[in-house]
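note to self: the first set is below, dont mix up w the second
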Amino acid sequence: MTAIRETLTLEEVAAIVCTALERHGIRAVLSGGSVVSIYSDNEYESKDLDFIIEGIAKRVDPAMQELGFQRQVGRHWTHPHSEFWVEFPPGPLQVGDQIVTNVAERRTAFGVLRLLRPTECVMDRLAAYYHWNDPQGLDQALSVARRHEIDLRAIEDWSRRERATAKLQDFLDRLEAERTRG
């Protein structure tokens, strides 16, 4: 087991946590802003690792305490040797109203990290833009879309189901403008 230390990156800490949870029989998937950090090469920097537990939620305490994390208020965990904190939002894993069943796996020197795929990461950030008018969500979605292959058709279909076709057009227009410039 790898010790958490100050020099570890967000992805390394996330892989350590994900692997420890797996050892304890807990399958978890990284979501939220930390996935944007990974896919955007830290253009957007998050300190919050949001893990969604798949299936019936089990107690994460043994795995987290084994790593040296300490429970804070509610579902938040901090470590004395890391700037990153871990949170366990309630499941299921979803983007908007759509349940996510396929996830990515990244193998690292610190273990396997399960996380949203780039397409679902874009959807997750667009959900913030669509439903809460969060312009940072749009910027984050574009940051991931610039760097990774995404399934635009799936995003368009999902956006229609989310009743957000006007805001989808904002995303598509800005993505096209960036690709034309780049």
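second set (the one i keep forgetting abt)
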Amino acid sequence: MLPCRSGRVRTCLRGATAWQVGRAIFISLVIFAIGSTALGQGKGHKRKKQQAEEKEQQKKEDTVPLPIGHEAKGLVLPDYDLRGILANRFVAGIAKRLDDNHLQMRNLKMTTYNEQKPDLQIDMSDSVLDLKTRIISSQQRSTVRRSDFEIAGDRMEFDTMKKQGTMWGNVKMTITGQSELMPKGSQDKP
């Protein structure tokens, strides 16, 4: 089939066979599909992805089944990541919703999970969870335990998304798995 120089498709397709017309339509559809897919991956796609993540975060904020100003005893809150895998579990003796973005928890026992296995056990006597940033902070003495260490401090801030925290004031750490930390050759020497 010769290219249509006049710009009029009807005159170009006049002498073409049905197979050639079908082929031209098929190629046009493939080009259109590829072009629309490539265009969908631009800035609009990033914006849609960001909006989807914000909606997911909003759903997480709304999953706290506690009205503002009310207290609940024995509140258990599972916290899932974006993939739907359990990331943290909060067990509070008493929980109180302070406002839209903050949840106060007393006698909190928080467990973080790493690949569906418990990783850290965090105990806080009085703490506040920011539901937007997912940072939990405590102005009271807090303790973090893992199989190989225990650390305690007067104040603590912990990012539940990144699983990183900071402790201040009278921090004391006890390492229990020292043999695993030592190089192989130094264990034999006195």
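remember for set 2: The helical segments are 9-12, 18-40, 43-62, 178-181.
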